[in-house]
Amino acid sequence: MSGSRKRREEDRSDSAAGAPGSPPAGDLKAENEALKREITALKASLAAPEGYEAVLEESDEKFRNLLQGIYEGIILNDDKGVILEWNTGMEEIIGISRDDAIGRTIFEVASRCVPESNDAGDGKKWLSAIIDTLDRTPTSRSHSPHLEIAVKHPDGALRTIEVKNFYYTVLGRTFYGGIVRDITDLKMILENLSEREDELNNLIQSSSDAILLTDEEGRITKFNKAQERLTGLAADEVVGLPAWEFQALRSSPKGPGLDPLTWYKEIWDRLLHDENDQFYREIVEDDITSTTGAVHHVQVRAFRIPTKKGFRVGAIVRDITDLKRTEVALLESEKKYRTLIEMSPDAIVIHDGGIILYANPATAHLFHASHPENIIGRDAFTIIHPDSQAISRTVAEKDKEGISTLPTEIQVIRKDGTIMTVEGRGRRIQYQGKPAIEVILRDVTERKKSEQQLREYAANLKRSNEDLELFAYIATHDLQEPIRGIVAYSQLLLAECRSDHSSQTKKYLENIARDGLRLNTLVADLREYLRVRSGGRPFAPTDMERILQDTLHTLHRQVTETQATITHDPLPIVQADSSQMTQVLQNLLANAMKFQQKGIAPTVHVSASSLDGMWQFSVRDNGVGIPEGYFEKIFILFERLYPRDTYPGTGLGLALCKRIVERHGGRMWVESDEGRGSTFYFTLPVTAPESSV
Ligand code: ADP
Fold first, then answer.
1. Which pTM value belongs to this model?
2. How far is CA 426 from the centre of its chain?
3. Which residues are 179's β-sheet partners?
4. What is the DSSP letter of 538?
5. Pocket lining: 457 vs ligand 1, CB cutoff 6 Å
6. How remote is the CA of residue 654 from the centroid of ligand 1, in Å?
7. Residues 294-343: pLDDT tens digits?
């Protein structure tokens, strides 16, 4: 390493040396200066050729020591690529010893350092590409002349190195050099740091709490998404603003006549300078008005991030508007609930294993106690009648387990010894943070008495009804005989006075015979009506489709005469008295054809559908229809809408059908559009009741 250097080389190494944060370049500058001094000394010594060799050797020695002493790796090679210098720094960084490197070409050595992932090709190509890049790298102060390369250590580990090159010419020969620094660890630290920063940023951004960070001067540096949602301001609008200016925009001081900016500036002055400020110790509540005008109630917690310059301030803001609203609603509902309980006419007791924890005023009243407090702490089971002990304990046990129970009647003994019946229903609740049972009790002593009276009354009514029906049945039976007699005798008398054409007597006798016959029909109808219950047969599976076919067979003549079209949907099998079902369908179908519209052939449709555990049958016709006021009347025995000569009949049919359906546990009604047709409905239980009479 001797000889003069051109100014160009000095420029290159100077500019490299001046690169900020580049210690090897600094060393190089010093080395450059030293070399310049050496060259001057050499020039001087050239004048005295006898000392030249010694000086040169000494200088070479110094230079070598200098190279060995620096941390960075230094490599020097000639214009053929033969390595002339390879310092200890290179040995450590590349993992190839000085002896192994010196004398070899840079390409030979490079081939041992090519990382497996390299796609530039073999060692020569790889290194040529690196040299090309380095040559193209500008060396001005504004650009970093360093190149980052991955190299493989002999142990296989990958290292990242930073390389900067230089060259110089001595006595017409150009020499090349490289300064190498191992930045593997630094890179890892930087990568870790950047990962941490990303993590932190993600955390801040994804937080549902609004977060704001400032620098040491109180200028906003971070403003997360939740802050944007809360305030309606975009981070771009806010970052860089002093925090107090931002706060004065969206919040107001809690006091009249205070200027928001002055108020918040004062707060922030304290926050930025006093690390013991109360805001760092307390959670503060505030209102924030968003740009949309919505007011959010928030909780703010301030914290400090110490730095070299002082500390930065952070604030976590939690929107508690909904929480507050729920709290208020809860308080209101609590109040409502309490008022309801206090005002309730029913006794409401909360107990745990029978021990009364709470009793409302109605409970005190029920048990003849002067005040609810007086029964608190008492064992509820002590006032329960021995007969009701077992059931009340069983129910209480179920309530405790959270099993739903039905209202239960129990007997309790009052303070004065009298017994009353109460109906109670309990359920498990949380009372003062512990599980307990809340029971609602109602004094049903009076109700029980009335129920008993009602039951007796109903039984009496049923008996008297049965008596009446029996009486009517016997009466109709007994009436038939004299009526038949009247009809027969009047007909005999009529035959006797047949010669007397103008006789008034004949007319009277005809009237007697006709009315007698009608009376006979009415009595017969009445007997049939009464027989629905007394003469009914037990229920058995009855195929309604077969019943319909039988009915149509019976009504064959009427169907032909009226040219009726009768259709039906599939009909179910029901538990019923089949002959009574025949009566029902017969009456309904006969009526549907009888009450046809003039000149319009009857169209009748029978259908059935299952609804709420019942079969609902319908018989729809296109006949004259029924005025709305008669929808109920037509089901009364002997009620008719038209005179007998318009439509024949006695008014028994529908009353009979209704009685039959009711005997089967169903009901019957009509819907009609006068002039357009009627639909008669009746229901039968899917599971029929026990056949009754
Ligand atoms: P009756 O047919 O002997 O008159 P019902 O008890 O069968 O007795 O019917 C009572 C009345 O209800 C009938 O007189 C008639 O006015 C009315 N009615 C019954 N069925 C129909 C129907 N399908 N269309 C119009 N009216 C009807």
1. 0.46
2. 30
3. 74, 164
4. P
5. no
6. 7
7. 999 999 999 998 888 888 999 999 999 999 899 889 999 889 988 999 99
